[in-house]
Amino acid sequence: MRRFLRTVILMLCMAAVLAFTAAAAEKKDSQSAVTAKKVSGKTYLYYKDTGKKVKGLTGLQELPKGSKNYYYFQNNKGRIYASGWFNKGKNYYYASKNGKLKSGWQTIGKKRYFFNRKTLVRSTGWKNVNGKYYYFNSKGAQVTKWLKWKKYTFYLDPANGHARTTGWKTIDKKTYYFNSKGRMQTGWFTVNGKKYYANKSGVRKTGLVTINGKKYYLDKKDNGAMKTGWVTVKGKKYYMSKSGSKKGQAVTGWMTSGKSRYYFNSSGVMQKGWLTLGNKKYYLNPSNGKMVTGKKTISGKTYDFGKKGYLTTTPTGAWSIKVNQGTNVVTVYRGSTPVKAMLCSVGLNGATPNGTRYITDKLRWHELMGPSWGQYCEHLSTSPNSVWSSYLFHSVPYNRYRDPRSMSASAYNMLGQAASHGCIRLNVESAKYIYDNVPIGTKVTIFRGTSANDPLGKPSLKKIPSWQTWDPTDPNI
């Protein structure tokens, strides 16, 4: 029995010694330098000091430990990946000829890549490296300069290692702004409390610009910031609204500032000298544009403009009408003087032809397409001697003959934009004005212009509720 116990104890001691020896050998091996050798076209790893093949290791391994030299073993017999790309599932690696895996920034075949310094995996998509963001395509190559990602545009700056740009950046003599996430800004945007504007391509605009039909001044001296108040551009004065929904927009029409009144045309330019609006004549101080009131001597003649600042005149000369399809505005003239502006609806998709026409008749009610009916109608013929025409001035259409309470509210609310089949629709007040005042034979010019062609501007429209079936301007209701 004692002999048996001695034998068991001896065997346990020998096993412990062997295990310790193996562990020590393994530890020694893990600290030993290694070298790669190619055998029959396959690359294996060997210990330099013993010349033995590295065995028993698989996957990603650091050899020697602490050296930051990594290898990827294909099996436990010492074979490693070498000389190029390889992948494990979706993870891609790159091994040099001696099998060492690349890490960090690497240039391979003229393209830049970044390999995670811990996992050695090739990066794709956005990557934060030392606080800077870079972008790598689906194959891991670094993307440079302009990048479209989802619905955003970025600039990966060559001057900064192709890192994502933020803030102001001038590229090819054009200035852009990228927010804190690197997204290029378009349209209106705010930086440090100031408003700026960039077009669809992201290019910052400066100077006097028109945006959605409204003029703004973006001060080049202030990096393109939107200005309010008085501005002078090429000798012309404008006033940009200081508050409200129209902040920054150039004022048109009359403006009161303190005790002074000014007038700005449809382009926003402050007017000076004589100004005629309808049958009223004003005088605006030539030096500062302020409207004159009371008595004033001009060129040796004294006028009395009264408290309201105008002389009442009766325009003379032949009647004429201009229809601006670009703005859906009708302007009535006596001689060269514009006397009345009206909102209209011309034809959709160019259904109203441009050109010269003449008023050839007057019809109190007239059947239109549909059928529907219009009030205060005039045919517009190509000759003053021809009555027939497919095009008319008329009110917004009604569903029933001689029933002013059967109007289409939706058609009324479209005044100021193209909506008809080709005729020129007006509200009742405007249609009746032409019917009552403008004679048969009057010349009508139809053209496509801009707001600059509307000397009295574009009247506003107060929309009506969908249930309302009468024209609020109709004097008979």
UniProtKB/TrEMBL annotation:
Cell wall biogenesis/degradation found in the keyword field: yes
Ranges of the Cell wall-binding repeats in the UniProt entry: 123-142, 165-184, 185-204, 251-270
Superkingdom: Bacteria
Gene Ontology, cellular component aspect: extracellular region
Limits of the L,D-TPase catalytic domain: 319-447
Active site annotation, chain numbering: 394, 423
Keyword Signal attributed: yes
Membrane-spanning residues: none
Signal peptide bounds: 1-24
GO molecular function, one term: transferase activity
InterPro entries attached to this UniProt entry: Cell_wall/Cho-bd_repeat (IPR018337), LD-transpeptidase (IPR050979), LD_TPept_cat_dom (IPR005490), Transpep_catalytic_dom (IPR038063)
Keywords, alphabetical: Cell shape, Cell wall biogenesis/degradation, Peptidoglycan synthesis, Repeat, Signal, Transferase
Pathway: Cell wall biogenesis; peptidoglycan biosynthesis
GO biological process: cell wall organization; peptidoglycan-protein cross-linking; regulation of cell shape
Pfam families xref list: Choline_bind_1, Choline_bind_3, YkuD
Gene3D superfamilies linked: 2.10.270.20, Cholin Binding, L,D-transpeptidase catalytic domain-like
Name used for this protein in its record: L,D-transpeptidase family protein
Native species: Candidatus Merdiplasma excrementigallinarum
